Amino acid sequence: MQTIRLKQEKLPYAVNEELKLLRTNILFCGADKRVILVTSAFSGEGKSTVTLDLCRSLAELGRSVVLIDADMRKSVLKRRVVSQLPEHGLSHYLSGQCTLDGVICETDTQLFYMVLNGTIPPNPTELLASENMKKLLTFCRENFDYVIIDSPPVGLVVDAAVIAPLCDGNVILIEANEVKYRLAQEVVAKMQATNCPILGVILNKVTSKKYGKSYGKYYGKKYKAYYA
User: Fold this and answer.
1) How is 47-105 classified by DSSP, letter by letter?
2) Within its chain, how far is the Cα of 121 from the centroid?
3) What mean pLDDT do residues 38-51 have?
4) Is 198 within the bounds of a domain?
5) pLDDT digits (tens, 9 = 90+) for 29-43
6) Quick check: is 2 in a domain?
7) Could you tell me if residue 227 is inside a domain?
């Protein structure tokens, strides 16, 4: 099993406390909520960074966790790897080009593992709906305490809705003051239609009156375009 090193950033105290609160909320969702999908409306809302920090936080608490980068169109997580990228990723496994042993990587955080997205395929939605995706999640469910899936924004593509039925629950991340109410309602409706329980909503990049500043810079910037 290959080991990868990730960029380490010291979070401000207030952000770290909110992250612990998110972790606690996930833990109290119940022992049956272990495979969790995280999605958003658009790109650039900070979903991938929040997801990564959540996984680290769970691992620091002694839970084994694997983060699956299911964004096979435009991965953000891959940019956080500072060591050599693994030869194979999710797209290789789903298309039958390698085994599970070739895609699950250890990280430099104990109990934290990752499956990176791999080479961008021409048919990501079909691969995510494949039998191999079900086998991957079954294996991870049996071998890790938590399986966290970073999916593409459901407001842009259908991928998250394809994966959701295989999960125990989903979390929607919304950027404050950027996503309109009607669009947020559409995102919620799409996820409700999958029959995968919505565990909650993360409101990101909030300007806190208490701390007098916004923490948006820690959780990414807005992109004008997501897919070519």
Assistant:
1) HHHHHHHHHHHHHHTT--EEEEE---SS-SGGGGB-SPPPS--HHHHHTTSS-GGGT-E
2) 19
3) 89
4) yes
5) 999 999 999 999 888
6) no
7) no
Residue 57 lies in a domain: yes
Q: Does the structure show a pLDDT above 70 at 227?
A: no
- Domain range for 154 is 32-211
Question: C-alpha distances in angstroms, 108 versus 28, 60, 85, 114?
Answer: 27, 12, 14, 11
CATH code where residue 205 lies: 3.40.50.300
CB contact set of 38 (below 8 Å; sequence gap of 6+): 47, 50, 51, 54, 148, 149, 150, 151, 170, 171, 172, 173
Torsion of CA 200, 206, 212, 218, to 10 degrees: 100
Domains: count for the chain = 1
- Of these ranges, 70-79, 129-138, 153-162, the one predicted with the greatest mean pLDDT is 129-138
Higher pLDDT, 45 or 66: 66
At residue 212, does pLDDT exceed 60?
no
Average pLDDT over residues 54-83: 92
